[in-house]
Design goal:
With about 180 residues, the chain is α+β, with helices and mostly antiparallel strands. It is built from eight helices and four strands. The protein has helices at about 5-20, 25-40, 45-50, 55-70, 75-85, 95-110, 125-140, 170-184, and strands spanning about 110-120, 140-150, 155-160, 165-170. Helix 7 links the parallel strand 1 (about 110-120) and strand 2 (about 140-150). The N and C termini lie far apart (about 50 Å).
């Protein structure tokens, strides 16, 4: 079976259950899944530990609870969900399920991930104007804004909104110029 389909099904079930338990519950689970995704990104050994057959399911559940910043006593839905994953031998898919949950949540709540990458930190007033332009482009949708600095861009910036990407960097201009010169 498709590995993308299984995490999406679990994520959808978790989202529906969280919504049934209250409007703020799905947002809280969303926050937990975002922290879990960040933990997997910042600690590459986490996936190895979750996939390790010599680590008990209870230890894996504790590890995933800690990685998400959840409290096992108060975050019962999250803890019960991890137990379900353990029973079905799906703890190794926790990262993929968290990613699928975040995507489903963003779709439902009309939230776009926006990443602005510049060669140097943007001045506060320039960043404010850029955010306003992006908000106008999104026509009332919410956004999760991230600002990154990449000196390799040389100058300019790259704006990613969902699947859209605007590359107005000097590095991209130089690349396009080089390709044009090589094609002649």
């Amino acid at each position: 079976m498709n590995d993308g389909l299984i995490p999406r099904r679990y994520a959808k079930a978790l989202l529906e259950t969280a919504q049934q338990q209250g409007a703020d519950k799905d947002t809280h689970i969303y926050d937990l899944t975002r922290r879990l995704i960040d933990s997997f990104a910042s600690e590459p050994g986490l996936q190895d530990a979750v996939n390790n057959p010599f680590v008990t399911d209870a230890d894996k559940e504790l590890l995933l609870t800690t990685a998400a910043g959840a409290d096992p006593k108060t975050d019962r839905l999250y803890a019960d969900f991890l137990k379900l994953l353990a029973e079905n031998h799906r703890l190794g898919m926790a990262r993929d399920i968290a990613i699928a949950y975040a995507e489903l949540y963003r779709q439902k709540h009309n939230i776009y991930q926006v990443t602005v990458t510049s060669a140097a930190p943007l001045a506060p007033d320039a960043a404010k104007r850029l955010k306003a332009m992006i908000e106008q482009h999104l026509k009332g949708a919410q956004m999760e804004y991230t600002s990154l600095v990449d000196p390799d861009l040389i100058g300019g910036l790259v704006v990613s909104v969902g699947n859209e990407r605007l590359d107005a960097s000097i590095a991209n201009e130089l690349k396009q110029l080089r390709l044009k010169l090589l094609s002649k």
